[in-house]
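subagent[fold] <- orchestrator: predict structure for attached chain, return tokens only, no commentary.
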Amino acid sequence: MADVMSMEDIHATAARLNVDLSSLDLGSIRLPPAEDFGIVSDDEDLKEEESLEFEEGFANIIVVDNLPVVPKEKFEKLEGVIRKIYSQIGVIKEDGLWMPVDTETQKTLGYCFIEYNTPQEAELAKEKTNGYKLDRSHIFAVNMFDDIEKFMKVPEEWAPPETKPYTPGENLQKWLTDEKARDQFVIRAGTDTEVLWNDARQSKPELVYKRSYWTESFVQWSPLGTYLATVHRQGAAVWGGATTFNRLMRYAHPQVKLIDFSPGERFLVTYSSHEPSNPRDTHRVVINIFDVRTGKVMRDFKGSADEFATGGTGGVSGFLGLFSGDLWGGGKDDKYFARIGKNVISVYETETFTLIDKKSIKVENVVDFSWSPTDPILALFVPELGGGNQPARVSLVQIPSKEELRQKNLFSVSDCKMYWQSNGDYLAVKVDRYTKTKKSTYTGFELFRIKERDIPIEVLELENKNDKIIAFAWEPKGHRFAVIHGDNPRPDVSFYSMRSGTSTGRVSKLTTLKGKQANALYWSPSGRFIILAGLKGFNGQLEFYNVDELETMAQAEHFMATDVEWDPTGRYVVTAVTSVHEMENGFNVWSFNGKLLYRIPRDHFFQFLWRPRPPSFLSPEKEEEIAKNLKKYSKKYEAEDQDVSLLLSEQDREKRRMLKEEWDRWVSEWKRLHEEEKLERQKLRDGEASDDEEEYEAKEVEIEELLDVSEEVISFD
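subagent[fold] -> orchestrator:
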């Protein structure tokens, strides 16, 4: 590196050498080739190949192409037209519209740049106006400014993509082959997310995988248990594997708030809502449907919240039914999905992600729909119109034919809610009706038998029509349902069957349990057993009930419980207290009949989810055969249980033996020290040798002590 000289040093050196600097031509000086004497030229960067660099942060700018090329005198008029179109979508920044002009012809170049306040407004403008027809000759081509760099990097010549060698991945279903037939669950507590085995035999969970800051919001299993999804500010991700839980795919969706899988796990739906820059505007909604395996966006829906609101509801709902399982139809084949709009139900098929027959189903004033869990059948609800002149109705529509299978008119309706049975055999419609005075309401049920000829409908009314319905739940894969009805704090619980004795065509009441502290119903996934739960205001009251025998198996309490979750096999159930309460956070694991197996306390406990299992490959006949011969099969597992019990007993005995040995060692050490200190103790006792207090004699010893001495001179005068 060359030495640096000041200008004073240079002038002094020039004077000493008799050099006139003013007459010196510095440009004529040439250095030897490849020699710079350590001095880097200011123009060195110009020798490098020019590369276009784009600053980040242009996500709120769009480029509008295919504009009319106009002279200077028409510039203002064209700018006004463009501004009018694009200011309807969002707020354009001051000086945020720029149309370049050819310096030679003074005409516009046929494109412009528009800068919005937010990237969301820019994306919406692109979505709404790309392909906009200004006139016959000018159709807008709109792109994000940030995409230009990507377009400029496209090579001039096409090259075939590189073929990567196949590398087999992990078996994502390996957890199903657990020799102990255990189930997994995921919990979130504090900053940690953990996947664990439920080892009820050992009365404790076994850790599979643990990770801190795994998600920024919540986690969710896919419906068949193959994937675990996490949610982040940039989007969502799915994870899977035998024990490591590797990330399998990412799905870009900034500020995503909700996610949900299709029943067959082929697709992932993500939802977000963004605040507008103009307070008078509604939120902007973005919904993406991804292919789970490839991460490709198969279809997206963007627009203002008003565009996703159904007629009469006034809320964002068009796709929000997907988060309660009402988006997808056709069962686990994921064939169809639907959205609700003003006076229409739009049904799409997933082969091409386009509307069936290229048009929506027109239904005046439709406000709700619900898919059958197993068949491509839509249940639609239309409220009353014209002050009751046009009755409310529930319709069943077959997809893809759009044929109406059944319709039921309903009068004096206040509200309506639909409940499908898990096999799609029955549909219960809870109907709240006005009394004649219109001052109060009462509730009844319309029960549709979907699989029977002509879909017969039965009407069920409670004995006390004025009872408030607190909860309703179908038995999974069964023909029974339960209803909590009446007034708090001790409502009644009634059980009904869609069969009556030998007849399968009539609903019948099985029993009513009076005065129960319950406000929620939780059927076992295998049916037969149900938990009557008193959550929130009832402080976690639990009653384990056998519906086959119509008897209570156990009553218990989990103080302040907020959640009840059955495992997918119906063997175990978890009650949890989440962080909505500051105290008692954690979860309890119970057997199906109400025996508490173990407790796990966790501070800041947020979430508990059992890992779902895919459907069994066994036929119904084989399952029935196993149930009949259960005693034969159970011998093997009873023997295993006995072995585990003996092992646990042996472990307990070993633990007690070790504790006793530790105690004996402590006693021996104490005795040794006691013996070593014997002489010291004897000395402290004035030679008394015995440590037995009973051998001591009490002696009274008088001690004289001079407390004070004073002298005083007394005068005899």
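orchestrator: received. Logging for downstream: The first strand starts at residue 61 and ends at 65. Helices lie at 7-16, 44-47, 75-87, 119-129, 147-152, 620-628, 630-676, 678-684.
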